[in-house]
Amino acid sequence: MFVNKIEKNITGNQIRNIRLSKQLSQQDVERMCSLKGVDMTRSKLAKVESGMVRVTDEMLKNLADVLNVSVEEFFY
Length: 76
What we know:
Elements: H1 12-21, H2 26-35, H3 42-49, H4 57-67
Helix pairs in contact: 2-3
């Protein structure tokens, strides 16, 4: 059976690549977000990275702040 997987965002893979390049786990990012008052669970981050959920501008801005990168880097 063929399942057509349609990604709901184009930034997920790059978010994952940046996180891994900084040697951070999803749980590390969840903790960092929590310290900054950002609502980002490990589960939500996993869905973002796998393209399963749409990302908002606010989510991208918050993740960029937490990962210490520019939002533009998510689109390379």
